[in-house]
Amino acid sequence: DRRNLKMIGEVGIMKHAILLLADEDPSVVKECNKILVNLASYDEGVIILYSDQGVKLLKEVLDKSETIRYRVFDVIIDSILISDQAFEFASSAGFIPKILEDLESSDVLLQLTALEYVSRLSASPTAFTHLKNLGIFKGVAAWLNSSEASSNASYTVPSVIKLFAKLAQKHNVDLMQFCEDCPEYVVSVIKLLESNDLSVKFACVDVMTLLNARVDGKQVFLNCSSASGAVRTLSHLATRGVDDVKDRALVALAHIFSSPDVYVPDFENKTNIWFSHCQPGLVKETLQVLSLPSPPRQCAAASLLSNLALHRYGIEAITRVPGWSERLLERRYCQDREAQAQRFALILAIKRSPSLEEFTDREIINKLSKYINEGAHYRETAPTAILEL
Predict the structure, then answer these.
(1) What element of type H or E holds 33?
(2) Whether the predicted pLDDT of 314 surpasses 70
(3) Measured between alpha carbons, how far apart are the two ends of the chain, in Å?
């Protein structure tokens, strides 16, 4: 009850909740965090939490130990995520620099923890703008190329890349402006697609997917001078990489070649150029994936082929593969319902292509139409044997 918030502060419940953040019992700490964050969910509560008394107590507890310091940081960050006013108070009280100071630590674990806090703070538009103005993202991006971080690169690089991946998923982030301010991110991620470290490679491939899932991300990628190189590397991973990387690379390529919901200048021409840089056997091997006993991989392959089918060069490449229609129309390899739906969407995309008649004959087009009319989940019934008595 808002009427009781001031009273709660006055009677010492806030004081005890802050002090008990240092308790040895995790359940007590969890309950105290809940009380303090709930307090911050009201305007009057934020004022009480960040009053002179509240700030003094938080700072006292914060200095007790490294573990307890993180508990205080959790309360502060959680309060910021529900209140812009909390960010202003926390910043004025000097908590934000303390949260960020471990980014400069020589201890990689402290660095990674600070980076996780940066990631969490970025969910607040106010905090994100503040961090950007401080140059935090630009500084962190430098880790991707810094020789000083090389000894810890297997830890720091995936975390930095994952930070960018999280930002790519946040709609409050203007990716074009962000990448203009921090061009190191996309360039470095593309370069690190060729890393020998699988965790780094996975993270980079996933960033390519997330980036191209947004219109502004597509525009960033479209304007990137190394985009062709990225597509070439991804096509290599999709055909020559280990299985987990293959699946991810197929999904990333599917997003890259997908048509944006709004007009993006030069998109068709650029994607045509990118496609020319792909591995020569990409389309053939992707069609072969449709016959593998792996529904997730079948879905990834069908998604890429569906998006290629939206382009004339894609239809030409698909129809040039010997036996392409037989492989597509063979239902026995596709028993998973999601994979069936993806394959149906692929056949529908091919059938709807205005370029199809240019590259194939009427008989195949009729077979595609028959498949569509039967539906995604059609099952052929076995012939019934008639016995003569």
Answers:
(1) helix 26-40
(2) yes
(3) 86
Q: Which of 162, 168, 259 is nearest to 203 (CA)?
A: 162
CA pair distance 95, 98, nearest whole angstrom: 5
d(CA 193, CA 118): 24
Helices 26-40, 66-80: crossing angle, 10 deg rounding: 30
DSSP 353: -
Cα four-point dihedral sign 80, 85, 88, 91? negative
Annotate 148-178 with b (16+ C-beta within 10 A) or e (fewer): ebeebbeebbbbbbbbbbbbbeeeebebeeb
Residue 272 near residue 228 (C-beta atoms within 8 A): no
Average pLDDT, the chain: 88
In this predicted model, what pLDDT tens digit does every residue of 17-60 receive, in sequence order? 999 999 999 999 999 999 999 988 888 889 889 999 999 999 99
pTM more than 0.85: no
Looking at beta carbons, which pairs linking 136-141 to residues 24 or more positions away fall under 8 Å? 136/100, 136/103, 137/178, 137/181, 137/182, 137/185, 138/181, 138/182, 138/184, 139/103, 140/103, 140/115, 141/182, 141/184, 141/185, 141/188
CA atoms of 11 and 120, how far apart (whole Å): 32
Cα 104 from Cα 122, distance rounded (Å): 19
- Cβ of 385: how many Cβ atoms within 10 Å? 5
Q: In this structure, how many other beta carbons lie within 10 angstroms of the beta carbon of residue 104? A: 10
Distance of CA 149 to the CA centre of its chain: 24
Backbone angle region of 262, left / alpha / beta, with phi > 0 → left and psi within -120 to 50 → alpha: beta
- Extract the tokens encoding 103: 């980014």
